[in-house]
Amino acid sequence: MATALVTGATAGIGNAYAQLLAKEGFDLILVARNLPRLKKVAAGLSKEYGVKASCLKADLSKSAQLLKVERVLASTAKPVQVLINNAGFGIKESFIDSNIKAEQELLDVLVTAPMRLTHAVLPGMIKRNSGIVVNVSSVASFIAGGTYSSAKSYLTVFSEYLKTELKGTNIKISALCPGFTRTEFHARGKMKMSGLPNYMWNTTDQVVSKSWRYAKAGKVICIPGWQYMLLSTIARIAPRPIVRRAGINVRRKQRVK
Fold first, then answer.
1. Is the distance from CB of 83 to CB of 132 less than 8 angstroms?
2. 148 a catalytic residue
3. Structure confidence by residue, pLDDT tens digits, 216-239
């Protein structure tokens, strides 16, 4: 049975991806910091779908713990066919006011971890000439909305590069670029979201089902929701000064208490 590894698997998009992959018959390696919660998720998936779901506790901002996940991905004993780089968090404060330790951790989790994990899994995928890597980016990668946007821009461009680099193989690379999605993300980051209209929200199931279809079809960029398809197109063709102002306005509204 094929195996998939999902980071940030206890909630939100990561949990929805774990559910989808279990339903499709994949054995799972679930990665997160909260082991009791991780075990609960794994037990539920195993019971409901009859797959093997193992837990790997790891804080991806810590080098030694990240290395544990890299070793699992590089293992030839139990090859990983699907990697979902989902773990992440946001910082409400502006870069000027934020804690530099938190900024470094954001960079470690959103940029360094997916880069290293992808680097670990690709040799096996190349040898087998098969595999899927999904990098959970954001529509924020198309605007200038703080260091979160900067980190997500790396993931989007990194995915586009790998798609080109691996042309001619059966390895599929896809960047999932969702907009506002109903998860714990904004609450954990203490961001104000009450003023956002309902039509701007997507569900995790909507986001993940489209992402998986796109990934299997070999499409490198997936932007769920007509509203975000429109906004991302505008962001890519509009004059950059306008895009920068829009980005900073979004960030400032999220910081208002």
1. yes
2. yes
3. 999 999 998 777 878 777 777 767
List helix spans (H) across 35-99. 35-49, 63-74
152 is catalytic: yes
Q: Mean pLDDT in the chain?
A: 89
Q: Please state which CATH class domain 3-255 belongs to.
A: alpha beta
Q: Which candidate in 152, 163, 172, 210 is catalytic?
A: 152
pTM: 0.87
Domains in the chain: boundaries: 3-255
Catalytic-labelled residue, pool 78, 92, 101, 148: 148
Report d(CA 202, CA 221) in Å as an integer.
17
The 10 Å Cβ neighbour count of residue 233 is: 12
How far apart are alpha carbons 220 and 174 in whole angstroms? Answer: 4
Q: Which residues pair with 32 in a beta bridge?
A: 57
Q: Which pLDDT tens digit goes with each residue over 50-102?
A: 999 999 999 999 999 999 999 999 999 999 999 999 999 988 888 899 999 99
